[in-house]
## 1
Amino acid sequence: MLSVSKPVVGMTLRPGDLYPWRPLSAPAGRRRRTFATTPPARLKSSELKVSSNSDASRVLAEATQLLDDGHWRLCDQGEGLEREFRFKTFKATWDFMNDVAAECKAQRHHPEWTNVFTRTHIKWTTHSPKGLSAKDTHMAQFCDDVATRRGELLSASQDGDAAPETPKV
Ligand SMILES: C[C@H](O)[C@H](O)[C@H]1CNC2=NC(N)=NC(=O)C2=N1
């Protein structure tokens, strides 16, 4: 059994360093890959534009983990993380968005998002100072956790066990 470790405190990464891969910490059943068959994302620190208020090695570690989980993508030349969420009903979608909005209030941090029926596209980026910050990685992970609790729909390519489902009103 591989242990899940936190990034090494005090670890310094220089531009171009690869963040050392560590096992995923997503809850069991949500993961769709095995360690044996799927190589980890190798995110170079130079691919990220970290907000100057954040600890670059922490943001790099957390962004690597989010990319490894397979849902989030880098966008805006490394200044943002984006992904789409789907739920069975508009009510479930709205409840998910309300949960995220409550955490936004607590964190004083806001998404760029769009919603159409049961699909919600979310981008996390920090406007000031510009770049990807620890608030963005926190909010991205928060979205994943709430979506799991609220029964998000995962396509077959996102979840090997799940049959494709059709949204209902
Ligand atoms: C004063 C207030 O905390 C700031 O304006 C916050 C509000 N929410 C924010 N959200 C995001 N995504 N980026 C910011 O820079 C930001 N700034």
Note: The domain at 45-149 is CATH 3.30.1360.20 (Gyrase A; domain 2).
## 2
Amino acid sequence: MFNFWNMQVKIFGVRGCCFGIANMILVKRIREALYSALLLQDISFFDSETVGDLTSRLGADCQQVSRVIGNDLNLILRNVLQGAGSLIYLLVLSWPLGLCTVGICTILSAVMLIYGRYQKKAARLVQEVTASANQVAQETLSLIRTVRVHGTEGEELGRYKWWLGKLADISLRQSAAYGFWNLSFNSLYHSTQVIAVLFGGMAILAGHITAEKLTKFILYSEWLIYSTWWVGDNISSLMQSVGASEKVFRLMDLLPSSQFIERGVKLQGLTGLIEFIDVSFYYPSRPTVPVVQHVSFSVHPGEVVAIVGFSGSGKSTLVNLLLQLYEPTNGQILIDGHPLKELDIMWWRERIGYVGQEPKLFRMDISSNISYGCTHYIKQEDIEWAAKQAYAHDFISALPNGYETLVDDDLLSGGQRQRIAIARAIIRDPSILVLDEATSALDAESEYNVQGVFRSVRSDLTTRSVIVIAHRLSTIKAADKIVVMDGGQIVEIGSHRELLLKDGLYARLTRKQADAMS
Ligand SMILES: Nc1ncnc2c1ncn2[C@@H]1O[C@H](COP(=O)(O)OP(=O)(O)OP(=O)(O)O)[C@@H](O)[C@H]1O
């Protein structure tokens, strides 16, 4: 009647195609998820969702999705067809016995549904707990020096064990649920056989069906129940995958920043005039805490402006707004009179040189780290020129492979990393230079020399505007203008002399620093 074997062979042929499609979808999904992650407007997403967690999800979750499409869907399709065939044949053989089997399969499906939902929830939990355990392991290993110095190996191990214990708990409950599901299946399967033998035997005795028909019936009802079981098993595995992949789906649902979608304005030249006009800002993760309030100041072309203030007063946040990592909540930033948010983001970032507080280098050779982000081809001699300007050439030349040396976190000191980051900023020959504690790890002499380079005119003889955040008096004194911040607001603006005469917060800060030095 039904050549199931042939049917299986044909459907298994489809399996190869399914896997092919699944792998294509997998690659596309990973690309989409990475794309959404890289182009997010709110980069604080990465603060809450640790990067390690995200990357493990990108791999593991997408593989789950691929497995579902390539394997589970194929098996579901095969068993639905097989079950439907068996059901039709059973009803043709004997509809009362066929209906009994349908009743048992319905109960089986209901148990399956509950089990599938449970698996979905459990899979989500397993993903979350595994991610937390991984995070602890990653954190402990990356902060191994801090852990050793504080002698907290035992505590860290305890933290890791706690998460593993939670994982074991969930796995135990999952196994119990699987046992219950298997028990239900076996009980229902055997009850079908008992019903078939009991009622079928009675029907044979009454002469309604033949022994041959009953044998066929038992065989096909077995097919039907097994198909129902397989469909259930695969649907629960599908639910698990859906549960586990929810985070990746959520990531892909986030819209990329409009900065990258809409092409903005490219100015005909950039003089370097920056104006902050009544700028206020709240971080999206802390919408009730104003970090910057009604800030207005300007940086004229060629000017060096220092931003000073207590720790946490909002200095780096101002820089983040200028780099367009965030949009001001109120007010606006103008560049050469044009609103910053209307400028083409790539064009703008090409014209800015930025050195952050603790510059991070990529695991590439030193030359690639220096030329990182440059849009045109950079000659080796230009890289060496930038390194010389940043007072990095001597130590780079002393490394075993010179500029070809692969950068490793342990290889370079904080000051050496800063010099490479400074060379990276200089090589871009930017119109605007932003330095956030960029020379804090340099010795006094190197800092003095490097400052001269920051100020110098650009290769096309135009001036360069510099915004510098610093705590060291020597750096601040050299600025044309000093902006003093306190609690997210500007409390004083002026030159070093003017501010000392004012005898306000700046004068107090400099006196304290002078006292500390003496
Ligand atoms: N991504 C963030 N999400 C939420 N709050 C943040 C974030 N980054 C900084 N903050 C908060 O904003 C405030 C200002 O931080 P900011 O880094 O701008 O200060 P700062 O003056 O540069 O400090 P420092 O001199 O120590 O670098 C702080 O209270 C800080 O906790």
Note: The chain has three domains: 4-253, 274-351+430-517, 365-429.
